Automatic annotation (TrEMBL):
It comes from the Archaea. This is Metallophosphoesterase. It holds the Pfam family Metallophos. Coiled coil: none annotated. InterPro entries: Calcineurin-like_PHP, Metallo-depent_PP-like, Pesterase_MJ0037-like. Residues 17-176 form the Calcineurin-like phosphoesterase domain. It comes from Thermocladium modestius. CDD domains: MPP_PF1019 (cd07391).
């Protein structure tokens, strides 16, 4: 199934995981003269479609649920609609606060929905056969959570790729990133401590909002990031052969070094044509 979310079973429960829904983005676009219909129901429908395909009854939004800062009246309405819709569809709704989510805790508290909970951007561990740490990605997790986690799922960085067809048309597609990393190496960078053992699987989710695509991983992961993300502690640019890239339908595209090489080749062809891109 082609979805920007994933479904996982943790502790006997099936969860839909989605990141960076950015509810209310179209309101900001309208202020700039770009008129786009509300995407809130469309995002809800896509999350429900992902859940129905796998029989999932729980959902977690991994940060940046809403878009605008500060939060205007129109965006507050969209955010409440989105949260209420999730609460009606799922047994449990977990929200990880992201860097765009200022004031969201108050909205959640005001709604008073019993199956809707939230935690800060440092995330939460859901324990099971494998302990899964869910967080946004702009703040490093608590040390004790990192040590006991087997899998980390995050958003924040909006991974994508640029693809060029035979006519020269370039399109950008959201992708998922998977890494197998040494826990002690990350802990030394993150906490200046030699804690943790073995490997940890890190999954970076794409943005779920259909109006956004993201940043090309061949540049955003191939060099030290210029913005705040815990990927700076993981240093994917030092091990591009170990960074796996997937389309949202889980088609394996290759490793990061393959994509960097492809983009360099594409840029070379562009220059060879005298800088003229076909459309």
């Amino acid at each position: 199934m082609d979805s920007r979310g994933i479904t996982v079973t943790i502790g006997g429960r099936k969860w839909v995981l989605a990141a960076d829904t950015h509810v209310g983005l179209e309101i900001e676009m309208a202020a700039k003269g770009i008129m786009v219909p509300s995407q809130t129901q469309r995002i809800l429908d896509e999350i429900k479609k992902t859940a129905d395909a796998e029989g999932a009854n729980n959902v977690a939004i991994l940060g940046d649920l809403k878009h605008e800062l500060p939060l205007p009246l129109e965006s507050t309405k969209e955010t409440k609609q989105f949260l209420t819709g999730l609460s009606k569809e799922f047994d449990n709704v977990l929200v990880i606060l992201g860097n765009h989510d200022g004031g969201l805790d108050k909205i959640i508290n005001d709604l008073g929905l019993p199956n809707l909970t939230y935690t800060d951007s440092r995330g939460i561990v859901i324990e099971g056969t494998k302990n899964v740490l869910l967080l946004h990605g702009n703040s490093k997790p608590r040390e004790e959570d990192f040590v006991k986690s087997d899998v980390i799922v995050m958003g924040h960085t909006h991974p994508a790729i640029s693809m060029q067809d035979s006519t020269g048309y370039i399109m950008r597609r959201p992708v998922m990133v998977r890494m197998e990393l040494d826990k002690k190496r990350i802990a030394n960078k993150m906490y200046s401590k030699n804690v943790g053992k073995g490997k940890v699987t890190v999954i970076v989710m794409p943005t779920f909002n259909p109006l956004t695509i993201g940043m090309d991983v061949s540049s955003s992961l191939a060099a030290e990031p210029g913005f705040n993300t815990i990927l700076k502690y993981m240093e994917p640019w030092r091990m591009p052969k170990n960074i796996e890239i997937y389309l949202t339908d889980m088609t394996f595209l290759g490793t990061l070094d393959n994509l960097v090489e492809y983009n360099e080749h594409r840029k070379g062809r562009y220059k060879a044509r005298g800088g003229k891109r076909r459309s």
